């Protein structure tokens, strides 16, 4: 069942009642008409009263649905076939909220000795959800496996690293790419990492989702040992792009972007045009509908870099204050970006430049990630 901007009708009255004993939220109408001519977007946000929520808006930026969250949200994953939307807690949070057509929102949680890392990916059939988690007693990255029918946790396998962040399913429908950020976390410590040291042990790993068996693991070269690989996107060739966050000396401006090519070669994308202009922090990476373009945002720098995925050439760097959320639209060469000041902006990218089209300034502060709901 496809989701679109008319799929989700806003009904906020009574929703703020919060969590119910059965693990659902107060009843909210979520309907799915068959007219699916438009595409919508969903992202975590903070409302003017300070509470966190997940919100959906249409292609014009008009808000369609707002559902409160029990805490700060982070990444979103969806399954177009079933109409499921899942938003995960920001690490070291322990909730995931589910929106399912014609049913009230629902919450599920990991085991007591696990926390989420904010990202997940569905199986091709939409019956399984793979979530990045932390076994925080052993500081071991895990992929938790959940049955979408009832959100029972039915299995897990290790990522082989520390601090797994984003996970994406590759086009073969079998391989999961996982960004092991390399930073130990614990839910008992503030934001999860304050007192656990600053050593980084990051890698990019490919895992068979059926068995958990590794299909390959790649580390960055020594000069980039302090780069924490965090976010991923896949281009039309099947290359896995990554964006990192620098944990080393502040005066160093290393390349923050790179890709794992189909031939197994891991390469950094170093260019003076962006290396010094992203404030050593990439908050989101996305590909456009055709898989020909890559966008990378830095809310700290207030910038979005646009690249040609084939040549790695920098096309443009646009200014977007506190901009982080990125999603390709249904139109190749076009992205939607959201920012912490409420701005929703369309970015149209040609072979030589990018142009900005302000769509709307909402009352919420958009968080790090945005996801397109495919019709």
Automatic annotation (TrEMBL):
Report the InterPro entries cross-referenced here: TAT_signal, UCP028101, WD40/YVTN_repeat-like_dom_sf
UniProt keyword list? Signal
Q: Where is the signal peptide?
A: 1-26
Highest taxon of source: Bacteria
Q: Kindly give the Pfam families that the UniProt entry links to this protein.
A: DUF1513
Question: Does the UniProt entry include the keyword Transcription regulation?
Answer: no
Please give the SUPFAM superfamilies that the UniProt record associates with this protein: Tricorn protease domain 2 (SSF69322)
**Official protein name in the record:** DUF1513 domain-containing protein
């Amino acid at each position: 069942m496809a989701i679109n901007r008319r799929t989700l009708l806003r009904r906020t009255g009574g929703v703020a009642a919060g969590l119910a004993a059965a693990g659902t939220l107060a009843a909210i109408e979520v309907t799915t008409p068959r007219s699916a001519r438009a595409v919508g977007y969903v992202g975590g946000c903070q409302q003017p009263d300070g509470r966190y929520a997940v919100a959906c808006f249409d292609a014009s930026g008009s808000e369609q649905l707002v559902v409160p969250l029990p805490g700060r949200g982070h990444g979103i994953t969806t399954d177009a076939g079933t109409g499921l939307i899942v938003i995960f807690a920001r690490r070291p949070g322990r909730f995931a909220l589910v929106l399912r057509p014609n049913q009230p929102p629902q919450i599920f949680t990991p085991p007591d000795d696990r926390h989420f890392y904010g990202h997940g990916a569905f199986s091709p059939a939409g019956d399984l959800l793979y979530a990045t988690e932390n076994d925080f007693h052993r500081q071991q990255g895990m992929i938790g496996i959940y049955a979408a029918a009832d959100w029972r946790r039915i299995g897990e396998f290790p990522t082989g690293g520390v601090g797994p962040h984003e996970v994406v399913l590759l086009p073969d429908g079998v391989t999961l790419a996982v960004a092991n950020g390399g930073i130990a976390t614990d839910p008992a410590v503030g934001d999860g990492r304050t007192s656990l040291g600053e050593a980084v042990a990051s890698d990019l790993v490919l895992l068979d989702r059926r068995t958990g068996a590794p299909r390959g693991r790649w580390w960055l070269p020594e000069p980039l040992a302090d780069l924490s690989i965090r976010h991923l996107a896949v281009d039309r060739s099947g290359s896995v792009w990554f964006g990192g966050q620098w944990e080393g000396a502040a005066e160093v401006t290393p390349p923050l972007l790179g890709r794992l090519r189909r031939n197994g070669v891991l390469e950094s994308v170093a260019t003076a045009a962006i290396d010094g202009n992203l404030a050593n922090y990439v908050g989101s990476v996305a590909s456009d509908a055709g898989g020909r373009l890559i966008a990378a945002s830095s809310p700290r720098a207030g910038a979005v870099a646009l690249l040609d995925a084939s040549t790695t050439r920098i096309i443009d760097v646009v200014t977007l204050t506190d901009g982080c959320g990125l999603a390709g639209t249904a139109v190749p060469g076009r992205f939607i970006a959201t920012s912490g000041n409420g701005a929703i902006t369309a970015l149209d990218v040609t072979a030589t430049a990018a142009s900005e089209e302000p769509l709307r300034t909402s009352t919420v502060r958009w968080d790090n990630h945005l996801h397109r709901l495919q019709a």
